């Protein structure tokens, strides 16, 4: 690792809390998994409740059926048919109510889910702020490095301009000396 890479490595690890995302970016996945598990448990619990209610209503309707079968022997078949039709309609209505309640409970956010979502939003906001802090440090470091490079460039440019001027002066002086020698040799 060269010196510049070593500086960058130390730069990122100055503050463990702010740079946790660079060290272990996979930590955010656990929160999503836990959210899914909580929602699954909640839905499973509500489905189990609905099943229990349904089983209780079924056991009640079985006992009613048994009673109505004993009564049907003495009653008119048309009355029995109407009574059974009415019970069937009531069962359908109860079934529709249970389905609507189950769907509402699945679609309706619970307070636990809302709290967890708020926690995730807060954590996401904190992660963004940490990224912004690190980004600002990188930008500041880049600006310092560019300023240093520009100072070095300006110093080297000035040195080369001075060397160039000296060379031009030497060339001009040599040309003047050469022309003086040439003009001195051509005297009549």
TrEMBL record:
Composition-biased stretches (Basic and acidic residues): 94-106
Bias kind Polar residues: ranges: 54-71
Region of interest called Disordered, as start-end residue ranges on this chain: 54-76, 94-114
Protein name according to UniProt: Uncharacterized protein
């Amino acid at each position: 690792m060269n010196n510049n890479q070593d500086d960058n490595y130390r730069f990122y690890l100055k503050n463990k809390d702010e740079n946790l995302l660079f060290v272990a970016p996979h930590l955010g996945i656990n929160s999503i998994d836990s959210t899914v598990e909580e929602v699954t448990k909640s839905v499973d619990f509500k489905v189990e409740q609905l099943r229990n209610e349904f089983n209780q209503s079924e056991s009640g309707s079985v006992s009613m059926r048994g009673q109505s079968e004993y009564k049907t022997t003495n009653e008119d078949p048309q009355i029995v048919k109407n009574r059974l039709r009415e019970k069937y309609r009531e069962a359908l209505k109860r079934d529709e109510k249970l389905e609507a309640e189950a769907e509402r409970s699945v679609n309706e956010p619970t307070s636990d889910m809302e709290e967890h979502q708020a926690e995730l939003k807060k954590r996401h906001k904190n992660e963004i702020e940490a990224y912004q802090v690190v980004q600002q440090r990188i930008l500041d470091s880049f600006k310092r490095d560019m300023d240093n490079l520009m100072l070095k460039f300006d110093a080297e440019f000035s040195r080369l301009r001075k060397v160039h001027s000296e060379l031009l002066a030497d060339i001009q002086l040599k040309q003047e000396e050469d022309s003086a020698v040439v003009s001195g040799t051509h005297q009549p």
